[in-house]
Amino acid sequence: MSDTGNPHAAKNNGKGTEFISDNQQKGLKFWVIDGYLQNVITAVTEGFQCPRDNVVAFMYATASAAIGRKATCKFGNYTNHATLWQMVINDSSRGKTKPLNWLCRPIDEREDDAMRRYRREMEKWREGKQDGEQPTLRHHVINNASDEAVLRELAYNGDTFWRNDELASMLTGFGRYSQSGSGNIVAHLLSIFDNSSINITRVTTDPLRLQCPNLNVVGGIQPGALKRHTRPEWWGNGFMQRWLYVWPEVGPTPPYKEVEIAREHADYWDKTITLLLEMQPVTLKEDEAAKSMRIEAVNKWNKLADEADRAGTPDIGAGYRKMAIHLCRWAIVTALLANKTTIDEYVMQCSLQCMDYFTATMLKVYDYCNGKEQPKRLTFAEMVRGINEVHPIINQSQFAGSIGCSQQQINNILKNVDKTESVK
Fold first, then answer.
1. 137 and 116 Cβ atoms separated by less than 8 Å
2. Which of 70, 159, 234, 254 is the most exposed place for a label (fewest CB within 10 A)?
3. CB atoms within 10 A of CB 249
4. What proportion of the chain, given as a percentage, has pLDDT over 70?
């Protein structure tokens, strides 16, 4: 990974790519990263017809898992790793699992290789053909695991990627196999997020030492499940503020179309993840312009946090203060995806724009979990009928073409309106 010079020009091996300007991007920003990776985001979004924010979140999650503890950057007196916990909130069948699986494929293939190697070694060991201690499976990814298993993986491997297609199973599983309940694992997770070393001593098992553990977490959850399975005390102890929430604004389902993701995009993504997995440890630097921007942002968040505290909502205040840590970690991943080893003003600007998004979604999640009703999402038919009431649709074919559907769909929706009115 090396600096590319012009932050808007991707490192594309001379082939070039069309730069996606900041103004063209809504939601999570990614205009500073490698242009080919921007194209991967577009291809996966179109291929699975899912919200683009989902794809950006999953790309960053997979990249941060591949980076692990190999990249660090010192911000003031604090050293940060590329540790990200991301919760993608969508209704069912809104494009969470498939794009996540696609982007995680390079890591999954390594997991498959590790499992095959472990089985071969175990077979030799059992047959007495291999000396030494019993072979150990070195996981990089865990999905469905008990609390103790997660802690053990971190103790043995240091870097672990906890990936959940449905985060509800993770949240409800806390403490399921532990007599101490969910409180114990959540307390450990609070320290693990901060990369703090932990000693764990049990009567029935060998002691564990988690030395500077690095746990990256990603998964999807439905809004209703989020509200049901999160606990009020998790806001008070800071667990909920440790997450970055991705909650895309979604409209009506577009007409279905089949767009194959080109092999060149898959190959480039595989190459990117392989480079991140195999890269040598690197210490990123923050230039003075980026540092100035970061300090200004932290002061802004601290001011907002103080206002939230005075308003009697300290949980929101804690969310604002946690953004300073999220910014540093997001910037590390952004820099490496931009082929840079310096966090410059462009990387910082793009990362700050993402923090604006995450601040808004944190507030949205807080309101939602605490009983504040969210606006009802209109169906496509309701929107068409609403437009027709205010401004009658004269030319159905032209209207249908402007919003990407068929004239027959519009006609059927308006026909149903006429039938309802005639019954009345």
1. no
2. 254
3. 9
4. 88
